[in-house]
Structures are given as C-alpha cells and as structure tokens.
Fold:
Amino acid sequence: MRTFLFVPPLPRMTGGLAVLYRMAGHLHAAGYPVFLIPREGGAPGLDPVNPPAPVMGWEEAAAAVTPRDVWLAPEGWVNALAPGLRAGARCVVYVQNWAYLLSALPPGVAWPQLDVSFLAVSDPVAWYTREVTGREAPVLRPGIDLELFRPAWAEGAGGDGDGASAAPAQGPVRIAWMPRKNRALAQQVREMLSARLALAASRGERAIEVEWREIHGRTHAEVAELLRASQVFLATGFPEGCPLPPLEALASGCLLVGFAGFGGWDYMRQALPGGMTPWWPTPAGSTDADGAALPPNGYIAADADVVAAGLALERAVRLAATGGPELAALRRAGLATARAYSLDRQRETVLALWARVAGGELFPPARA
Structure:
C-alpha cells in the first residue's frame, strides 16, 4: 500500500499545504511508502533539496497508482481525484475547509456519486461532512511547532505558579492581526475599539494605548517573534476548517479574540460571560495533554458580528493592560489548548489512522 498526496498548485504557501507536508513527513519517517504529487504549478513552500517525503511527478503517479494504494486530495481539487478513481484506488478527500466541499464540485456531480472516503481536519468539519455527504470522516487535526511558538515570559517568572504570566503590558497593548482575513470587518472592529477607548479616556478613565501589528508577508519565524511580542490576537477569518494562526497565538501567550469561522470551535472555548456558543451538536472535541476537556480560552464572537468582537477586544485590551489572575488564567488556558495541537500529537494520530488503513479497516477499497 502506497499513499499518494496531491499538492495543489497554489500561488503561495498556506496552512493547508503545511498540514499536507507534515502529514507526508510523519508517514515517511514511520516507514510508509508515501509520495507528494505536485502539478505543473509546483509546490509552494516545499524544500526541493530535503522534502519531507519523496516527490513524484503527476504523470508518473497517475500511471503507477493501483487499487491497493491511497490517493488523497484536499476538498477543493475534485479533478485531482481522477487518476485514483480511474485506477480504482482508495480515494480520500481531506476536508480542510468545509466551505469548499460542495462549491468545488463540477455541475451535476454530488459526492455520493463518487467512490471516495473522507478525512476531516476538525470535529466541526467532520460534522458538516457527514451532514452533506452522509459519510463519516475521521479527524486528523493539524499540529503547530511549540518550540517555535512560545510565550516571551519565562516559565514561572512573574507568573501565577503555573507558568502563566499575570504581568500587564509594558507600554502599549500590542494587537496582532491578519489583514487578508476579512480586512473590512477587521477595520470596523479596530475603529470601534479606538472610539471606545477614547470615550472612556474623555470620562476620566485610564487612557490605554494600543499598537496594531500586521501579520502579512512574513516568515514563520518572523510571525512567531511578532506573536511573542504581542498581548492580543484578533482573529477575523471565516470560513475556517481548523485555523492555525489563533492556535499559534495561544501558544505564544496572546489573548484570543474574534471569530471562529465554524471550524475554530474545534479548540476555541468561550470565556466571555454570556457569550455565544455553537448552536450545532458538538462532540467532546480535542482534549488537553492529560485527556481533560479544553478550558475557556478566548473571547469569541459570532462570525461577522463586529459589535460583539469590538466589545470583546476592548475587554481583552483592558485585561492585558491591567494584568492579574484573570489574565494569567486565560494565558494558562491558551497554553493548555496549544499543547493539545502539538506536532507529536498530530504524528500519533496520523500513524494510528494509517495503521487502520493498512489493516483494511479504514478507507476501504473501491466498490466493484
């Protein structure tokens, strides 16, 4: 059994590509025959000298795949399943963003017509996949590099006994955000925060200065450095499958504020008193390193609810500016959440899944 992972010809490196590369790397390191299959557009972000797994050309892979093999493609690239379907291989669609599962289908084609299995990037995406295809989707969550994304404060220094810093920001409260994620809505949230802080200062309340720090066009190391120097992360992306930047922000000690994009509810847990929670049936979701439920870890607003997000951001900024036990508790919850999405846990999950695949229990061969 070989595994062929299709690499979409995207214009730039993305979180979804990183997940595919790491998945391939885990399987290759464990001894599974696995190949990355790029198209003519190349493979953004893939190290040509030392790739995580062997790279095979599209034509060669299409001619080599057999019914015993696994042919995997992300949900937005239905045509990339063609070689696997023609060969009668065990075709798998890795649903990394629920929003593209149906929109990517050619006119007149429905998923139940295709002999494919599904893999989901999060519990919400697995639920959605089941609701629109009628098929179960095992969950393979992404992982983040916890050695790279870590808080600036030293373990236990200025903390609450559990390593989470209770110290307030020194100077302005720095807010990290991503302009490419619904920029217009993010700007409205920003304007609301400025107006609220100015109004409070005019009434004699403490003046709080903020500094906005854009995450755009930076290397992974530069993003990690920026997050370590920030106190708050504003998440404005939706739709999402299992967004990585908010996780990286939690790992870096930031307070999380903003939108979940549906898929973010795999790990986002509401910390706002009376704040919104998912309306759909939610399974237990991910757990922390000890198997316990994830703690409240962010101030989450409904997607596109600018007013709720603006008020939540003000609350987070004031907390970051004043410090104290509540700040430390949220930071501690963020670290616990991030640890649940380590690269080690991702590796353990993919290897457990592929042991079931190799045993014929998961992703059964094509129907005769």
